[in-house]
Amino acid sequence: MRSTTDSAGFAHGVHPPMHKDETAGAPIRQFPFAPVMVVPLAQHFGRPSRAIVREGQEVQRGQCLAEADGEVSVATHAPASGVVQRIDLVPGIAGRMVPGIYLKPFPGSTQEVAAGPACDLDTASPEEIIAAIQRAGIVGLGGAAFPTHVKLRFPPDKPVDTLVINGVECEPYLTTDHRVMLEQRDDVFTGIRYLMKATGVARAIVGVEANKADVARALADALPADLPVEIGVLPVKYPQGAEKMLLKALLDREVPSGGLPLDVGAVVVNVATTAEIGRLLPRGQGIQERVITITGPAVKKKGNYRIPIGTPLRFALEYVGVEDDLGQVFLGGPMMGQSLPSLDIPITKGTSGFVAFRRDQALQQRTEYPCINCGYCVDACPLFLNPARLGLLAQNRRFADMAADYHLMDCFECGSCSYVCPAHIPLVQRFRGAKSFLRKVEAAG
Amino acid sequence: MSAPGRTLAIETSPHLASGASVDTIMRNVVYALLPVTCWAVYLFGLSALLVLVTAVLSCVLTEHLLCRAAGRPTSVRDWSVVITGLLYGLTLPPALPLWMVATGGVIGVALGKSLFGGLGYNAFNPALVGRVFLQAAFPTAMTTWYPAQLSGRFTELPAAVLTFPFAKPDFDGVTAATPLAQMKFDQVATPAGELLLGTTAGSTGETGALLILAGGAWLVARNMMNWRIPAAIFATVAACSALLHWAYPAQYPGPVFMLFSGGLMLGAVFMATDMVASPITRRGVVLYGVLIGALVVVIRLWGGMPEGVMYAILLGNAASPHIDNLVRPRVFGTSRGRAQ
Asked: What does the pLDDT average to over B42-49?
């Protein structure tokens, strides 16, 4: 085994029970098509894509349904061969309706994926690769859904020397990246080649946590001799998958407050995103499915699935089966994932998994105590903020002081402080409220 | 499947919790105090038991009744007032008249805790607020000590204990001097072995140094006590007294005597570590411990009283919010603690 480095990690953080064993060994299985697919036009950060099909039109799986609208936007592709039923409002994650397309798959179709012109690794220029990534509709599949091509076009005054592939997957329960790295090794390596050529970066490092030792071994064993890639094995700790924590742990570089990985010479790309780039670009295809983990105590057939984008969650849960006392469903992991008000939303590009809890697992019933200044939150915050003080200021509605004196805006809501709080104070919820208030004030000028 | 998600619960993330809880922490502190409490009853007998029971009951009842009066649900179930009562009782002379014990308990909880808004809002350790009141109001009774291990301690009660309120207590002649008083006024040092076991005169629970340390270590192992606070206090007291003893060996006692005599052990391990009234940052608690340690040495060696742990901790409590404002940790990705 070569190219495996053990890194020290980052300071603070927490150790929630991971529950990954329940699905880490389950091979990725193909999910069937739902009777009607729901494809939002804004599955990514930035401007929604612009529909280029009309109602009643027959489309092929993988065909472009909507084009990128500007630089911070990507294309959206058909998840199935079928007919465009309606271009209308579809259920969005936040409970609002958002623009989207209802697509009815043909039941008897072979569901062959449409292919455009391939992006050849050897002949394509960096700019052509970046454009192909945007055309393929690729965004950060770890959950942020930030258009990947935007990260790759960095200004010349920011010298970037390292490509970091994020395979940490620090959220409990999720094993999407774990399975992708095991089963799509070659796609990952090909994706890295595309990304290195696109950015001109000479060094790449894949970060995984020690609970994925099998992945580290498998990757290191199969590593092509001409690929300058290291595998960095990190001690398990949440929230190591956050870009700032990962760069600190792997490279000992500290992204400045309010800054980006670019500011410390790095570009971070999620490993599932990398694998999709490696899989799709040589075939000239767009992203029309992704791997997700469906798990949690209330799920019967826990596992990892390759699922068409646009599959309604209700259909997905009916397929895997849920227990009668289903209480909550989280989009993503239980630490940062959002609890969903309804099952009508579809799987989108940013969906890394669903975790379903039983009714008795709700935290709501816990008694809230006053803050006793125990300092657990201070020892947990990976950014060295003072969550106890921030929580008190929020309670007193001193939002401006929170930002000016206590770096509220640096908080990325990892939830470590709320997780450890023995007084059961909803700290992150208070911080979100304060931030949203300050953003509104700022917007109002 | 019967229409899943008709009653989905909505919560904000995170959806997991470590399981730590305020009442669990408080209950564990009570457990950690039990060995030294039992030892105190063994050493000083029936009167210590009565003092401790009175202290706990007066504190708990005060908090309960004040919650009732304020129309709030009672907060005694969070166990914090039990710690206050127990600690308060452990700092009192073992034969203090019970009516004084009860008065101090009421004052400590009412003025030291409830008036500030209850748990989490008290600026000072409420047990010490009760004790400081007694020290000011009844200085003689608060400095009249009984020797440990008196032969009839489980069958007879010193007359003073049951003194009628406001009557002059009758201390019946078997009183003794504490090691600190012997040192201060007679320049007599107590052997270290007696100090460790606590078979000397002193407050009910301050004398069992080893049991106090064991209780503290148990809490530290459970991440329910900040070990940096007692460590900083001990280091400061040891360093200062070692220096002074080395320079003027006839005038000043050495570090072992300073560490294991009086209320330093109980104060540093169980009272200075009161989470609410101590700083929250790592560097902050060290500064706080150094401050308390230095004050202990100053008061003990140059003050008018033989003991100064109580005042040192209360002054440390007063400084604690300011220490948190002063030493802020460097925020990730910045060069300084404050926003730019």
From this structure: 92
Report the 10 Å Cβ neighbour count for B84: 31
Find the mean pLDDT for residues A270-274.
97
Which residue from A minimizes the CA distance to B120? A372
- Chain B neighbors of A317, CB-CB under 8 A: 1, 4-5
Q: How distant is the alpha carbon of residue B157 from its chain centre? A: 26
pLDDT at residue A356 is higher than 50: yes
Q: Which two tokens stand for residue A110?
A: 């072979």
Q: Number of A to B CB contacts under 8 A, please give it.
A: 185
Q: Give contacts of B 244-303 with A, CB under 8 A.
A: 275-278, 280-282
Closest CA to B313 of B259, B271, B258: B271
* pLDDT at residue B339 is higher than 60: no
DSSP assignment of A322-377, as one string? B-TTEEEEEES-TTTPEEPS-S-PBP-TT--EEEEEEGGG-STTSPP-------HH
DSSP B198-247: T-SSSSTTTS-HHHHHHHHHHHHHTT-S-THHHHHHHHHHHHHHHHHHHH
In our burial notation (b when 16+ CB lie closer than 10 A, e otherwise), range A99-125 reads bbbbbbbbeeeebebbeeeebeeeebe
Architecture of domain A4-26+118-283: 3-Layer(aba) Sandwich (3.40)
Peptide bond into B306 cis (omega under 30): no
Is residue A29 within 8 Å of A305, Cβ to Cβ?
yes
Give the 3-state secondary structure of A71-112.
CCCCCEECCCCEEEEEEEEEECCCCCEEEEEEEEECCCCCCC
The answer to whether B13 contacts A335, with C-beta atoms less than 8 Å apart, is: yes
Which chain A residue lies closest to B1 (C-alpha atoms)?
Answer: A318
- Taking alpha carbons only, the member of A204, A193, A191, A194 closest to residue A251 is A204
Q: Do A326 and B16 touch (CB under 8 A)?
A: no
- Structure tokens, A1: 């085994």
Work out the minimum CA distance from A192 to partner chain B, whole angstroms. Answer: 28
Interface test with A, best of B83, B274, B280 (most A CBs within 10 A): B280
Residues of B in contact with A416 (CB under 8 A): 14
Contact B4 A322 (CB under 8 A): yes
Q: Structure tokens of B298?
A: 């100053």
B4 in contact with chain A, both atoms CB, cutoff 8 A: yes
Instruction: Determine the distance from the C-alpha atom of residue B84 to the mean position of all C-alpha atoms in its chain, rounded to a whole number.
Output: 8
Residue B29 distance to chain A (closest CA, Å):
13
User: What are B190-228's pLDDT values in tens digits?
Assistant: 887 788 777 788 888 887 889 999 999 999 999 999 999
pTM of the model: 0.92
Question: How buried is A17 (Cβ within 10 angstroms: 0-12 exposed, 13-18 middle, 19+ buried)?
Answer: exposed
**Closest CA of chain A from B333, distance in Å:** 4
* Domain limits, chain A: 4-26+118-283, 376-443
For strand A50-51 and strand A64-67, is the pairing parallel, antiparallel, or unpaired?
antiparallel
Tell me the C-alpha distance between A201 and A127, whole Å.
Answer: 14
Chain A environment of B1 (Cβ under 8 Å) = 317-318, 321-322
Residue B266 CB-half CA count within 13 A:
33
How far does A385 lie from chain B, in Å, by closest CA?
6
Left (φ > 0), alpha (ψ -120 to 50) or beta: where does A296 sit? Answer: left
Helix (H) or strand (E) holding A268: strand A266-270
